[in-house]
Amino acid sequence: MILELKGIYKDYQQGKLTVPVLKDVNFSMEEGEYVAIMGPSGSGKSTLMNIIGCLDQATKGNFFLDGQDISACSENEMSDIRLKKIGFVFQSFHLLPRQTALSNVEMPLNYAKVPKKERKERALHALERVGLADRVDFRPNQLSGGQMQRVAIARAIVNRPKLLLADEPTGALDSKSGAQVMELFQSLNDEGVSVLMITHDAEIAEHAKRVVTIRDGILQEKR
Ligand code: ADP
Ligand code: MG
């Protein structure tokens, strides 16, 4: 099992007000699965992704990633797990604007203290993998949206994560670039990477082999 969430609740504190966002979420995912989470805006998708991505802790409940109890982890342990096991792709790419595609992709390897030569080789390889071998020295503002997202995917896979997490990965893209992103996810999944993708687009969700829906913080398996 790559993911196991048991009775997950998440509340946000707004001054004196407690805002319940996730309500008793139970969800698990086998290694190698490709799952989409669908739900309207404000339903708690990003909140859930932040917990699964070890960026935030649940208010209540148990969360296991690759067999490890994350509910019991410190911030440092969580950042270590993020670096080693998870690749992130966001709707708005989150690239460093002044850095080239190559340095953007090398970034997680710097954190992982990979030696310089190997960093470059692995980043180049990841950029080749996403079809951007001829764009390694370009900065984000010299790339199209689809190309920026492919740089972000190269960055997400450069540490060879077990789990790829994507929050609305095609939300800012035209349909052709979106299709390229979906092709890449498929081929990564074919190689054994578990993929969890958040989307509110039913057509995009179709690419996953399993779809779950979230509504007002309540997760439901779609049948
Ligand atoms: P989605 O990604 O599905 O659009 P979010 O997970 O971003 O939804 O947000 C779900 C709900 O949680 C929203 O009502 C939002 O206002 C609230 N929320 C999200 N983040 C915070 C926060 N940091 N503090 C307070 N409320 C938040
Ligand atoms: Mg969101």
Describe the structure.
With 223 residues, the chain is an alpha/beta fold. It has helices at 45-52, 75-85, 101-111, 116-129, 145-157, 175-190, 202-205; strands spanning 3-14, 17-29, 34-38, 60-65, 68-69, 86-90, 163-167, 194-199, 210-215, 218-221. The strands form 2 sheets. The protein has a 6-stranded mixed sheet with strand order 6-7-8-3-9-10, sandwiched between helices. A 4-stranded antiparallel sheet has the order 2-1-4-5, covered by helices on one side. The protein starts with a strand and ends with a strand. The model has no long low-confidence stretch (mean pLDDT 96). Adenosine-5'-diphosphate (ADP) binds next to strand 1, strand 2 and helix 1. Residues 45-46, 167 line the site of magnesium ion.
